[in-house]
Amino acid sequence: MKMFKRDLEEKITPVLFKGKLVVILGPRQSGKTTLAKKIINEYGEGGEYYDCQLADVRAHFVLGEPDKLLPLTKRKKIVVFDEAQTIQNIGSILKAYHDTYPEIQIIATGSSSFDLANKIKEPMTGRAYEFTLLPLSLNEVTSAYPDFCEADLFNVMQFGLYPAVIASETIEEKLFSIRNIATNYLYKDIFVFEAIRNPKIFEDLLKMLALQIGSTVSINKLSQGLGITRATVNRYLRLLEQSFIIKRIYSFSNNPRNEIKKGFKIFFLDIGVRNALVDIASPMSKRDDKGAIFENLFVGERMKKGSLEIFPPEIMFWRTRTGQEIDVIEKSGPNVSAFECKWKDVASVPKQFLKAYPNATFAPVNINNILSYV
Length: 374
Fold this sequence. Notes:
17 helices, DUF4143, AAA+_ATPase
């Protein structure tokens, strides 16, 4: 499989051997294992990789007995514990080990933020750097494929940006890869670690969300359409966010009288996963939803860009009670940036937005200039 240079590597390597554990979170198949192995390969025999899903590896993790890990870390400078979320009490175990043997750099990876992060954050407070690795960004793809063209962008909009999908050479291989990821990997942690009483309703919710990307979502309508309580809908949405499948973005407003303050939109962190739930086969040229797909792609790319920053900007949308709107608002401290996504047209900034936020920047984004903003 083709190797991709991940932008996150440049954020991780400077913090190694600074006296803290490194945690890499992200969805399954996003490239965490490949990145972690690449980092430790720089240390030759001083680096070692362990899959925590293997029984002989798991046997070394015992609460209150950090020396049990010594057979795995002896004579090593840096060690990777992959899929660490499968280990019970992982945070407390790593805390005790880190406090006893601080000279050994530990990298723990996990595909489930609601599980691994919660288990590590509390025990490892002040002892860990946390990073998130999402599917490939357009910047990473175009670095690997300098001849990237409009046809390639259309393929990305159809099949998404998971490494296995991008590395697939034929349409048939891309279809197989994204369907496999969407059906066999992404929900695994939710079904393993959380009690989902009715998986069919959970999957129906995902499909309903996939049909509403770029539109304001109503919890009441989701609840009524699925025949479940609002509390259950909210719980499922939280799990989908914490497992890196969707992201909720909320409305931006400093003027509640004229602007809509409540409400949120749903976007998928990978557009290929979204399409696999709705329609993965139709090419972009024949799709009625290509505008929403393009908007979702752009939002996902801005999220990936923000994930590389210590203080990422907050991503929102703007809409007035009279129907004026802007697809994407980024707020970083006092700075406000606005982006309007159009398939091929050039968008203009609404006059009401200019009047309300004269210091904000505005950029129209379409398929011809998207690479300039990601």
